Amino acid sequence: MKRIFFTVTNDLTYDQRMQRICTSLAENGYSITLVGRKLPSSLPLKDEKFHQKRIVCFFTRGKLFYTEYNTRLFFFLLFQKMDAICAIDLDTILPCFYISKWKRVPRVYDAHELFTGLKEVATRPRIKKFWTRVEKKTVPRFRLGYTVSESIAEEFSRRYGVNYSVIRNMTRLRELNETVPKEKFLIYQGAVNEARAFEHLVPALKSINARLVICGDGNFMPQLKELIKENKVEDKVELKGMLSPDELWAIAQKATIGMGVAENTGINQYLALPNKFFDYIHAGLPQIAMNFPEYQKINRQFEVAILLDDTNPERIAEAVNNLLLNTVLYQRLRQNCLQARLILNWQQEEKRLLDFYQSVFNQ
To answer: Who's near 88: CB < 8 A, 6+ residues apart?
Structure first.
């Protein structure tokens, strides 16, 4: 049985993507260990079909956290037996690189995003310089890898000549309870970080006759709370915080519209294909998303979303109100979601994952 270690910097409880990947591999004969961090607020881990390890750090953010976490991660991995190691994004790639060389095992890069293209990285010169150096040093030496969209894979090929596979971050198909009564609210699920267009979405709520439920947390939460106060929409916004996958699924099935607006600042946003796009489809939710390349491809095939050219609050409000009032359009997009979910699901996408790891060990 081949032993693979996966490394992340986040709390394992809420990482649906890694839960899907690790479960699929464990169910198909691999011994999987997922390594992440433990926060003071972390919930007890649920039993999974794979092993889980949490690393406790004194620091919780910034340069000191990354330095401490990567050091602790390196020494933990140093004493583990493994047949391959996979770094999830740049923030754990250095320990994986050195461990793979030390142990002479295959190394894989799982690029959940174009890390140096994140707004919080791209707009901070010193931080961008550091992570760009890390990327240039390591990514060309990770010849094996995969990412979440064709656009990001093409960008890695252009930058470093690597030929990465595409394994999209799709939702696992499960029964949709269509008897759940719908409630008139918009849902945003995912990271509450920079470039998610909250500066535009919150003002738009003043012209929308529906409330917004935000499921998630992140580094932009203090600014988001200020925006809610400044725009006097406290009665229209509900902050749910971090929720388990099952809790998210229950809320999404009650919602009316999924919100996936984002700023075109930082190349990562423009090229990305985040999991919430598929989560909304699986919940049968028409959504408001951006007219970016990856959304365009899927929307041309299934028409599940209204795509915006920009995040102007008036345009956001107009698109939402159109979906709320135009029942013919809404039902067409909803029916398209119900058809698309039968094709765009993890049960289909995991076949690419299994083929990839089979090729890793057949080289």
So the answer is: 6, 7, 8, 18, 110, 112
